[in-house]
Design a protein that fits this description.
With 209 residues, the chain is mainly beta. The chain contains one helix and 16 strands. The protein has one helix at residues 2-23; strands at residues 25-32, 41-51, 54-59, 62-71, 75-78, 83-85, 94-97, 107-111, 130-133, 141-144, 149-152, 159-166, 169-174, 182-188, 191-196, 202-208. The strands form two sheets. Strands 6-5-4-3-2-1-8-7 form an eight-stranded antiparallel β-sheet, with no helix packed on it. The relative contact order is 0.15.
Length: 209
């Protein structure tokens, strides 16, 4: 019996260590999964770096937030401002928190892989340019009117967006909860390769016109 107890304790310790390793890194969210919608929505998105109890973050509606975090097997807390309960144990791909009574669907953050890093932020210009989605017939024209407003040819009104360079990731957040974060990877000629991040990574090419 004692041997079995020791094995259980050892497994718990190993699982705890793996969680601590997994939680370090760059994450993006918060995604909300709703079974009545085709894809997760991202309201007021932000990107955050978690590293050994300290965080840095930047989002669509705020700049350069930082502080400390702590967590246990059940809960996660920023700056001692109240805890959030895990919906499941964090893993290498995602962190999920329980929703609220008013909105019960899980709140999810997805880990951003290093493959999306881009060190050419200053050389890829968007403001004032128009693009189509390469390979998609009759696609919308995407117009970055300036450094904060973009518009689609199928819509009358412009939409606020924010481009952030964060820990070597070049990311665009758009104030439309249906549009996932967009990571700019590289520019080749008049084509810009980006990756959207709804549920799985999806590669897209913007063709400048």
């Amino acid at each position: 019996i004692m041997r079995n107890i020791l094995l259980i304790i050892l497994l718990i310790l190993i699982s705890s260590c793996e969680s601590k390793d997994d939680i370090n890194g760059i994450w993006v969210g918060p995604y909300r999964n709703n079974p009545f919608q085709n894809q997760a929505t991202v309201s007021e998105p932000y990107i955050i770096n978690l590293k050994n109890g300290e965080f840095q973050a930047e989002g669509l509606h705020f700049n350069n937030d930082s502080g400390k975090y702590s967590y246990s097997i059940k809960n996660f807390e920023f700056n001692n401002e109240g805890s959030m309960e895990f919906a499941s144990q964090p893993n290498a791909d995602s962190i999920a928190f329980k929703g609220t009574k008013e909105d019960p669907y899980p709140i999810i953050f997805r880990k951003v892989p290093d493959s999306l890093k881009n060190n050419r932020f200053n050389k890829i210009k968007l403001s004032g340019k128009k693009f189509t989605f390469d390979g998609i017939k009759n696609s919308d024209t995407l117009h970055f009117e300036n450094d904060s407003i973009l518009s689609y040819s199928s819509q009358k009104n412009g939409t606020y967006y924010k481009r952030i360079y964060f820990n070597e990731f070049d990311v665009i957040f758009i104030s439309d909860s249906r549009t996932p974060p967009l990571f700019i990877k590289e520019k080749v000629g008049k084509k810009i390769k980006i990756t959207s991040y709804p549920k799985k990574l999806k590669n897209i090419v913007l063709n400048e016109i």
